[in-house]
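Support request from a user on the community tier.

User writes: "When I paste my C-alpha cells into the form, the page sometimes reloads and wipes my input. The last time it worked, I copied everything first. Here is what I submitted, just in case something in the input itself triggers the reload:"
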C-alpha cells in the first residue's frame, strides 16, 4: 500500500511532487484544472515535460482527479454533453502528462437504473469515438487549435476530405465536437470531456483484479525465494530403531518339521 496526499499545483503541475515529497508521500493526486470550472488552461509541451521529469525524479507518477462538474449519469441535455466533453478532455490531459490514472465521480440521477444506463451509454460513446487513432489525432489537433475549419483540420492527414468528414461525424455523434457553418466554411471546436467516466468505471473495478494480481505476485515471489528445503525422507526410513532393538535383532522363528501321525 502506498500512502500519499492530494497536493496543490500552484506554480505549475510539476510543483505537486516537491510538496508530496516534503510531506513524506509515496503517491500524489492532483487536479490539472479547476475542479469547479468547465474551461481549462492549456497544458503546454513545456508543462508536460516539467511534469514528467518531476515524476521521474520523485520515483512515482500522479493520479489525476477530474472535475466535480461532470455528471455522466444525468439525462439528455446540455449538462450531459458538457460532461462527456469534459470527461474526454480530462483523459487527454492525463495522456499528455503521462498520468496513469484518472479518478472521476460518474454523477447522480434520481433513478438508479436510468443513471447506470446513462453512464454506460456515455462510456460507449466515449470509447467508440476514441478507439480510432485518426479520431484521437483530430481531437488532439482541436485541443491545440480549437475552432479551425475542416479543411485546415484535415491538412496533416493523408486521406481524402470525405474520409475526414466521416471521422468528424463519429466525433460529433459522440458529443465530442461541434461544427458551425459560416458562409461556405465549416469550423470545428471541442465540446466534449467524457472519457473521465470510463476511467472511473475502470478504477472502480481495478482494485479487484489488482488485489488478485498482487496476491499472485507475492505468492510467486515467496515460492521463488524460499530457501532450499531438505529432501523429505520416506517414512519407513525416517522412523529410528528403538534402543532395545538397536543392539540385537531376533531372527525369524523357523517352523519345525511335523511329527509322525498316530494311527487309531
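"...and here is what came back when it finally went through:"
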Amino acid at each position: 500500500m502506498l500512502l500519499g496526499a492530494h497536493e496543490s499545483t500552484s506554480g505549475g503541475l510539476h510543483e505537486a511532487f516537491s510538496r508530496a515529497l516534503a510531506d513524506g508521500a509515496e503517491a500524489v493526486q492532483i487536479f490539472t484544472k479547476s475542479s469547479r470550472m468547465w474551461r481549462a488552461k492549456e497544458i503546454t509541451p513545456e508543462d508536460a515535460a516539467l511534469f514528467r521529469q518531476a515524476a521521474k525524479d520523485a520515483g512515482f507518477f500522479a493520479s489525476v482527479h477530474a472535475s466535480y462538474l461532470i455528471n455522466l449519469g444525468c439525462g439528455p441535455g446540455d449538462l450531459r454533453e458538457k460532461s462527456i466533453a469534459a470527461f474526454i478532455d480530462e483523459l487527454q490531459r492525463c495522456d499528455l502528462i503521462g498520468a496513469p490514472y484518472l479518478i472521476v465521480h460518474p454523477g447522480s440521477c434520481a433513478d438508479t437504473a436510468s443513471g447506470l444506463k446513462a453512464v454506460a451509454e456515455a462510456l460507449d460513446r466515449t470509447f467508440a469515438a476514441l478507439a480510432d487513432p485518426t479520431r484521437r489525432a483530430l481531437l488532439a489537433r482541436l485541443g491545440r487549435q480549437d475552432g479551425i475549419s475542416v479543411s485546415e483540420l484535415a491538412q496533416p492527414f493523408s486521406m481524402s476530405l470525405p474520409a475526414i468528414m466521416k471521422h468528424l461525424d463519429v466525433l460529433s455523434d459522440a458529443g465530442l465536437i461541434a461544427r458551425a457553418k459560416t458562409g461556405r466554411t465549416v469550423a470545428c471546436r471541442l465540446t466534449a470531456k467524457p472519457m473521465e467516466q470510463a476511467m472511473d468505471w475502470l478504477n472502480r473495478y481495478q482494485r479487484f483484479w489488482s488485489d488478485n494480481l498482487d496476491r499472485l505476485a507475492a505468492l510467486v515471489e515467496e515460492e521463488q525465494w524460499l530457501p532450499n528445503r531438505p529432501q523429505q525422507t520416506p517414512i519407513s526410513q525416517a522412523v529410528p530403531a528403538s534402543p532395545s532393538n538397536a543392539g540385537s535383532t531376533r531372527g525369524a522363528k523357523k517352523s519345525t518339521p511335523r511329527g509322525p501321525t498316530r494311527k487309531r
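Agent notes: The reload is a front-end session timeout and is unrelated to the input. Residues 29 and 262 are 107 Å apart (CA to CA). The longest helix spans residues 195-225. Escalated to web team.
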